[in-house]
Amino acid sequence: MSNPPSRRAILSLYHSTLRTSKSFSSYNFRNYFIRRTKDTFRAIQSESDPTRIQSHYSEAVRELAVLRRSAIVNQLYGGWRLAVEDQKPSMARADS
């Protein structure tokens, strides 16, 4: 039996997954993967069995690889920004 991952390794994986989730250009995909990432790591955090922690961790590592590839494809074919997303503010005139 292998040792369960350390807290630092889990946090590093969490940050990498969250960073990758935020790199999606599509609003819906981005928010879905951010929510899914948080839910996945809450489940890991609430787990106490070392073998289950190890299995959750290894599954999250595999999902991160898939997520990175998917984010690249999504960035290639990114569409228009939606109305619910933050828009860049327009430049205001100084005399108004």
TrEMBL record:
Complex 1 LYR protein domain ranges (all copies): 8-65
Superkingdom in the source lineage: Eukaryota
InterPro entries per the UniProt record, alphabetical: Complex1_LYR_dom, Complex1_LYR_LYRM4, ISC_assembly_LYR
Protein family per UniProt: Belongs to the complex I LYR family.
Identification of the protein by name: Complex 1 LYR protein domain-containing protein
